[in-house]
Amino acid sequence: MATGKTGSVLIVDDETDVLFALKMLLKTEVKEVVTEKNPDNLLSLLSKERFDVIFLDMNFKSALNTGNEGLYWLRQILDKDKDATVILITAYGDVELAVRSLKQGAYDFIVKPWHNDKLLETLHNALHSKGQRKSKSSSPTIASQTTILGQSEAIQDILYKIEKIAPTEANVLILGENGTGKELVARALHEKSFRANKPFVSVDVAALTDTLFESELFGFKKGAFTDAKEDRKGRFEAANGGTLFLDEIGNISPAMQAKLLTVLQNRQVTPLGSNTPVPVDIRLISATNEPIYELAAKNLFRKDLIYRINTVEITLPPLRQRHGDVELLARHFATIYAEKNHKPVPEFAPATLQKLNQHSWPGNVRELQHAVERAIILAENSILQPQDFTFSAMELAPATQTIPAFAAETNMPLSEIERETIRRVIEKNKGNISRAAKELGLTRTALYRRLNKYDI
Question: Which PROSITE patterns would you find in this protein's record (predicted)?
Answer without folding.
Answer: RESPONSE_REGULATORY, SIGMA54_INTERACT_2, SIGMA54_INTERACT_3, SIGMA54_INTERACT_4
